[in-house]
Amino acid sequence: MNLRNKRLAVKSLFFLALPSAASSALLPLIVSAIAAAAFIALGWLTSQKLSEYERSTATALCALDAVLCAALISANLFSSSIGLAACLAVLGATYAVFKMAIAKTPLEAKVVSTENRFAVVEVGDALLSPVPSGLYEINAHGLKKGEVLKVKAVKPLWSKTRLELA
Amino acid sequence: MKHGQLSLEYLLVIVFVVTLVAVFMLNAANDAETSIVIASVRRACSDYSLEVNSSRYCTGITYFKNSTYFTASPRVYDKQGNRVPNPGAEFNSMALRKIKGGITGNETWACSNCADCIIGKYSYCINASKG
Question: Which residues of B touch A98 (CB under 8 A)?
Fold first, then answer.
């Protein structure tokens, strides 16, 4: 299996955990929980064949998936509005943490060419990347061709996503 | 706002919104199922008094559920006002048939113990001695 297919397999397995957890509406909770846990575990195991950078991303995705699945399964257990409010608060907090993590996670990019204050860098495919793979211009000088950098994606309102040095 | 949303974050927002809606729907479905079970046991109590034993009647109905079992506990009394903790297999069977009818629309079913009475995610039990 090539890297592209491995990434697709990891994303698919993590995604399949969610409908498995939601199936708790019809199936015994233990069955749904085991199915969701199996998909998450398989996704995580598959991700261990990726690069170190992507492995850490996969672990973050794995944790996010586990929280979402737990919320879906536990929705069958509480019947009070306090339980529902607590569940929503946990989901909200998880979203905030993950959004912060995405904003702070740097991407690996390789310098392809340099010119004055600009450099063209190549971003490869990744499990969880805020930009598609390809060539991007970044505003930086003193870089050497072939150098591997950490960059972060920035999206100002009303304009395209650009990369900056992390 | 200094920064907009990355496309990845839009995907994350969609996943979270879908999950939130699913949590609400599962919670509502769970509450609806509880209401159906209580109403079905109430109907079984009425039918049992009318069709089988007119000296028996129910007052309150309580329930307990965990991840596997849903136990409904009707308080059954006789005409003298004495609690009947074990109204018998016929009563339990009728209540379980009504529960099945309430949930699936098909009452042609009976079972003898909790472990056999699986409808969807729960094993349904009747225990008149609790509650």
Answer: 12
